[in-house]
Amino acid sequence: MSEELRGNGESTAFVPGHVTSFFAPYPDDDPERAGSRGAGLTLTDGVEVTVRAAEDDAPPVTLDGDPIAMPPVEAVLDGLGVADRARVVAESDLPLGTGFGVSGAMTLGTALAANDRFGRKRSANDLVTLAHRAEVEAGTGLGDVVAQARGGVPIRLDPGAPAHGRLDGVPATRRVEYVTFGDLSTAEVLAGDTDPLVAAGDAALTRLVDRPTLPTLVAESRRFARDAGLLTDRVREAVDAVVDAGGEASMVMLGETVFALDSGLTDAGFDAEACRTCDAGAHVTG
Length: 286
Fold this sequence. Notes:
Elements: E1 10-26, E2 35-53, E3 61-63, E4 66-67, H1 71-79, E5 86-92, H2 102-117, H3 124-138, H4 144-150, E6 154-158, E7 166-169, E8 175-182, H5 186-191, H6 195-210, H7 214-227, H8 233-244, E9 249-251, E10 256-261, H9 264-267, E11 273-276, E12 283-284
Parallel strand pairs: 3-5
Antiparallel strand pairs: 1-2, 1-12, 2-5, 2-6, 3-4, 6-7, 8-10, 8-11, 9-10
Helix pairs in contact: 1-2, 1-3, 2-3, 2-4, 3-4, 6-7
GO biological process, one term: coenzyme A biosynthetic process
Family: Belongs to the GHMP kinase family. PoK subfamily.
Protein name: Pantoate kinase
């Protein structure tokens, strides 16, 4: 198959970070149907992924300059038929493993950039499906990829890749602050009893759909974290401090991380990072 290589020898994609506020996991034998229902925020802090030709003395995948093993990224390259020819260089505003969807961003960004770099001529939905499938099979995410592809404040009404999933959104944009205390294992949480997650996530989704606003989303996220038994002591203390100061905050799923609207964390005395909700979804930048 012929390829149309970009003249500059590389392609770059930007993928927004994704804060999941609540979710209900829906596994399936078909990874394209598997996924989650729920809602969250995409962020202007995200991941920039550059794909260029492989180099003999360079690691195949790096994140912020360090070599990293990333099975879903490798699966995407394999799915596009370029695993032996591509090098992936990712730079992130966000820490890995703390609930910002960095793995999903790297995977989706790789799909978009590699498709462009090597002229694979795949459609947007095909690339999102490829990335979603890779994340599900690797056990690193269920809903980040489809949310990051959409951008904004996505509501995942039905699980799965584009042919199966259904999305809506909260029509709003806002300043967002966040502070991270540590990481949590998505795989470990999903390996346990997920019935409480499904019950709490579906209930939160119903209430958000009835009143699709950012304050509702954050309030339902707090209720979900409590009902699903996910709150750690440090997260609970930070969330309570923001609420006591008159702000809106909750836990990021899944990470020992707190997010707040506007200046909620700063007002509560935390040294927080700040960005905004990202109006655009994942896209090739050059």
